[in-house]
Amino acid sequence: MKKRRSENADDTKLIADDTKQIEDDTKLIEDDTKQIEDHTKQIEDHTKQNKRRQSSWDPNS
Q: Which portions of the sequence form the region Disordered (predicted)?
């Protein structure tokens, strides 16, 4: 069946809106992923520092 032009325009608008929402969601996921990577790096750095402190700590002093 043939669709009317207004129905096609409505469908196109819905697709555009959905595409925009997907792009926004993808950006949020990318931001969250970056934040997790940053936190993971901080934890790794702190772990290295703690290992250095433990290895230099002398229980007899």
A: 1-61
